Structures are given as C-alpha cells and as structure tokens.
Amino acid sequence: MNLSIKQFRAFLALCKHRNFTRAAESVFLSQPAFSNLIYTIEKEAGARLFDRKPKTVELTPDGEVFQNIALGIINEFNLGLSRWHDHINQEQFKISIAVLPSIAVKLLPSYIQRFRLIQPKAAFDIKDLQSDYCLSSVVNETTELGMVGYLPQDSGVESYKIHSERYYLVFNRHHPLAKRDTIHLKDISHSTVIRFASTTSIYQSLHVDITNNKNINYIDIEQLSTLFGLLLSNSGITFLPELTLYMFQHPDIMVKPIAEETLSRDIYVIRKSGKALSDISKQFYDFLTES
C-alpha cells in the first residue's frame, strides 16, 4: 500500500466531518479532487471504507480499523516532525568548541555564563583536548572554535588573544627551594625538572631554556595525575600556568611565583582561516574577542 500523509489527512478529515463538502474545505481541496483522493485511498486499501448516503457518510467496519491505523500513522508523523524541529533548533544554537582541560574548568565557564545572558538558548558541545588536538579539531572542522595556549606559525587558523596567565614554580615543601623567599630561573639549574610532552601548550609556551636545557635533568610525563604523584614524592619541580594550579592544592605541595614575570602563557580563541562560522558560533567568537 502506497499512501501519502496528504491522503491519510484527507481520510481522517472525512471521518471527522462525515460530509464530502465540509471535509474537502477543511483540507483546502475542491470536492472533485477530494472525492478522487478518497477513491484512490479505498483502491489502495483494497476495501470500501465509507458507506455513502445522500448528505453524509458512515465508516464501514473496515473503515473503523483503517481509521485507527491512520490515526497512529499521523500521530507518529507529527511526533517525528516535532523531534526534527527540536533537533534543528538545538543545532541552530549549538556551539562546538575544543579547549584545554584547564580552560574548560577555570576560564570557559565564566564566558559561557556571561554569553548566556545575551543568548539564553546557546548550547555548548565542549571537547577537552591537549593543545595540538584542539588545533587539529578546528582545522579539520570537527569543531568550529577552539581555545589554545600556544599557536605555531602557519597553523591554518585565525586567532585572538583573550587571556594571559603567569607561570608558577611548583614543588614539594621539603625541596631546598622551599626555603627561598624569591626564586629566579637561575636557581633551578641543579634541580630535576618534571617536563610535559611536547604536544602540550605547557611545554610549547615555556622558554626553551626551561624545556630543553642540557644542564637540567628532566623527567618526561604526559598526565597531570603523574605529575601530582611525582611532586608528592619530591622527585622534582615543575612549571605550571595559573589555570592549572587548582589541581595541586595539597599541604605537601608549594606554589611560588617566579621573579621573572615575563614567563607567561597566552590563551587564544581560534577559528579555521577562511571558514564561515554558524550564526551562533560567530556571536560567541565576537563576544570573546570584544570582552
């Protein structure tokens, strides 16, 4: 049986009005066109669905069964249509963004909260990734926007600096540096430095004298949880940007500023070069760059 939604609606209109003229008017068809539509429905159904009388019609027993089926089909269709509209509305207001985990926890929430005062329907799809993966997510169009702590040259993205944060020295309270009131970079020359993987923005935004100095002993890691354990065991010192410090609040771990205030990390919002943003993502990008 090959019937359209239009035909099911016409059938149900006749069930409701029990009169060809009124039913045809309710679905905005001429009576001849409507009568032909009902005829094709009965032909497809293979049964007489209505008993015709001079000024009215009555459902046959087969017609009553078909009415229940038609109501179910129309209800399912309307429900599916409603779900589709909900999906379109959600997509219309969805902002996909790849961010560093520390940004996702400490910086992004305040931006989202303030932006929703302007655009309450905004919905965020957040991917927390390392810096290189945030960049590739935008370049490969997995997300429209990104927030990163380092930008290589010729990265294929447009960027705007939205935040800057200082680096701090982090170490065990039993480390010799704990006795110093002021710590300079030259003071770490005889310490073991716990160094992050080269794909992280922490590594990429630090001075080469810190991340690749032949006079310093290094322990290479990838995860912050590993760093936490090494600091507790007093296995070395490390440099961390301010946004990550909340993860290292412990009685045995000390955080001290470095005398050289130029040691900092810039945070950028990025978008793919030459790629048009959706309306809602463009609004959020403009909000970030104008804040």
From TrEMBL:
SUPFAM superfamilies for the chain: Periplasmic binding protein-like II, Winged helix' DNA-binding domain
Keyword Transcription regulation in record: yes
Pfam families: HTH_1, LysR_substrate
Ranges for domain HTH lysR-type: 1-60
Organism taxonomic ancestry: Bacteria, Pseudomonadati, Pseudomonadota, Gammaproteobacteria, Enterobacterales
Gene3D superfamilies: 3.40.190.290, Winged helix-like DNA-binding domain superfamily/Winged helix DNA-binding domain (1.10.10.10)
Organism: Leminorella richardii
GO CC list: cytosol
The family this protein is said to belong to: Belongs to the LysR transcriptional regulatory family.
UniProt keyword list: DNA-binding, Transcription, Transcription regulation
Sample GO molecular function, one term: DNA binding
Name recorded for this polypeptide: HTH-type transcriptional regulator gltC
UniProt entry tagged with the keyword DNA-binding: yes
InterPro entries registered for this protein in UniProt: HTH-type_LysR_regulators (IPR050950), LysR_HTH_N (IPR000847), LysR_subst-bd (IPR005119), WH-like_DNA-bd_sf (IPR036388), WH_DNA-bd_sf (IPR036390)
